[in-house]
Records
---
Amino acid sequence: MFKSFLFVIVLSTTLMASIQAQNTIGDRKGYTPQMGNLVDMLEDLKNRVTSQVESLDQAGTDFLLDEDANRIGAMIYHLAATEKYYQLYTFEGRSFTKEEEAQWMPPLQLGEPARNEFQGRPISFYLDIWEQVRTETLEYLSQQEDEWLDKRPKNARMNNHWAWFHVMEHQANHMGQIALVKKRIPH
């Protein structure tokens, strides 16, 4: 009985992942081969996160699992802020300006300030910010050759490929966190 139950769980999880994922990584028009692969992976993750949250109402967007948690809207803003940071770091060789810090550090750091500030806005507010950042990322990536992935940002131990792998890893981690929080939203 347990083996049958386990099989059903594994099968349904695999099917859901297949339905939500694009199932191929490959060339993209307007990008070099490796940039196209990177874009495919970035877009797949973003699409899967978006599909989890795009239908949330205000209560779901602002739901707080406990006093130390972050709201789903804030986590989406956090993903955009992280991507923005790595854009500036890898493409422009810099960190945030003072003006950019005012916008991006609260969602980047999350915690109590973000819990207080990032609420009362529809999920589309956060998704639109992430979409704007992603549009910039795609433009930057379309201007790079594959060799750029091996280069290191100024004063960095990591190369650009690892930096953008980390952006995806970060998004995947929060995708799981968002799924957990979403399951706990009272209906």
---
Amino acid sequence: MHLERCLLNINANMNKIFNHKLFEIFFEKALIALILLLASLLTNQALERYKLIEMQRVAGTTAFVSACQEIWSKIYEYEDTVNDVTSIRSSRWLLKSLGEKNLKDKDVEIEKKSKLKEQQLNDLRKLTNERKFVIGHNFVMHFWKYVGLVEARADAKNTAQEKEGYEAKISQDAVEAFDKKIASMRFTSDMAREYAISQLPR
């Protein structure tokens, strides 16, 4: 009887120990599963945040490059027209120096191109105002400085042709200086993209 009671006590104690061990194992497994679940959620959140940041970076870079391309396109159209006006004036000056009296056609041509130039300048002003939040103040200033140099070069070309001696030489030197400065200010789409990427937060 005593032995039987002892065996029952031992059995009861064994059951308690077994149940306790089972509970410990279950608790450890549940804790590990919870930790893995939290880690997975945090990893997914970090990944989604990274994807969102990358999408914004790509979108911002694309918008910047696209805006620069649009503005350069308008500037080059304007520059071509300015050069056309300069060429027509040069041709008119040459005809006049050769004694040509009837220069009306040249005057009409100059007036027509000058009106086109003004329209292109207004279009450019409107476009840079629309894109200033994408490209930023410094690039707006860069583009307008370029336009100013194009105008200054045209004036210097006209002066170089119409003047003589020392004044003509100074004007020609100015044209060459403007040419170099204008060339140094041009940048390609790839250069714009590299710049935009370099400015994005890391």
